[in-house]
Amino acid sequence: MSRRVPPVLLLFVLIPLLVEGFWVFWPALQGFWLSLTNWDGVSPPRFAGLGNYARMLEDPVFHTAVTNTAIWLVLFGGLSAVGGLGLAVLLQKERRGVGVYRAALFVPVVFSLVATSLIWQVLYQPGGLFDSSPLADPDTALYAVLVPALWRQVGYVMVLYLAGLKGIDPGLYEAATLDGATAWQKFQHVTWPQLRSVNSVVLSVIVIDSLRSFDVVWSMTRGGPYHSSELLSTYMYATAFQSLKLGYASALAVVIFVLAFGVIVTYLVRAFREN
Amino acid sequence: MDRRHFLRVTAAAGAGLLVSGTASCATSASSGPVAQTAGTATIQSNLSAPAAKAAIEALVKAFNDRKGSQASVNTVASETFRTQLPSYLTSANPPDLFTWYPGSLLKGYEEKGLLLDVSDVWQTMGDYPQAFKTLSGRVFVPTTYYWWSFFYRRSNFQKWGVTPPKTWQEFVALCQTLQSKGVIPLGMGAGSDSPWTASSWFDYFNIRINGAPFHRELLAGKQRFDDPKVKAIFTPWREVLPYTDPNGTAIGFQEATTALLQGRTGMLLTGAFFADAAPKDALDDIDFFRFPIIDPKVPLAEEGPTDGFFASSKSPHVKELKEFLTYAASAEGQEVYIKNSSGTILPTHPNAKDSGTPLVQKGRAHLKEAAEITQFFNRDSSDALQPTADAALIKFLQQPDQLDTILADWQKAAQQVWSS
Question: Which of A127, B189, B239, B352 is deepest in the core (most CB within 10 A)?
Answer without folding.
Answer: B189
